[in-house]
Design a protein that fits this description.
Helix content is 12%, strand content 22%. By secondary structure, it is of the alpha+beta class. The protein has a domain of 79 residues. β3 and β4 form a beta hairpin.
């Protein structure tokens, strides 16, 4: 069975999208798939490496800010709460959970907030993220 190895890179692609996630790669000469009247022709990709490099935090996705407030005094249920509001601004980029955790910790350290106040935990089976807050570190509470 004939075999053809192709090395395709978006760096050499045409009509590439702004974030590089889509592109065309014209083959010269064109790939010719032979016709076989008695059987099917099988075309397969046996190995591929795909790097995800488009930002998961961006202005276009409107997810560059994490806003939270610490309750410093009073109670929420009777509207006597006094809030200390905070906004963490993330630069556009491709963030892992540990990168997000580092940004949160750096912000908290700069504001003299306990770095255990907020944490992000990944839940692999459901591909979701939980944002946790530490009751003891927040004093009276935290609003996310």
């Amino acid at each position: 069975m004939p075999e053809l190895t192709l090395f395709v890179s978006s760096d050499q692609g045409h009509s590439r999208s702004a974030d590089g996630s889509a592109f065309t790669f014209p083959l010269t000469p064109a790939l010719q798939i032979p016709y076989h009247k008695d059987g099917a022709v099988i075309l397969s990709v046996t190995e591929v490496n795909v790097w995800y490099t488009s930002p998961n935090v961006s202005i276009a996705k409107a997810n560059t800010k994490l806003r939270f407030a610490m309750v410093t005094k009073g109670l929420l249920y009777n509207s006597t709460a006094i809030l200390e509001e905070h906004t963490i601004n993330f630069a556009e980029g491709l963030y892992s959970l540990s990168n997000i955790r580092i940004e949160i910790n750096n912000y908290c350290a700069g504001k003299a907030i306990p770095d255990t106040l907020l944490d992000v935990i990944g839940h692999t089976p459901t591909q979701t993220v939980e944002l946790l807050w530490d009751v003891q570190a927040s004093g009276y509470g935290c609003i996310i």
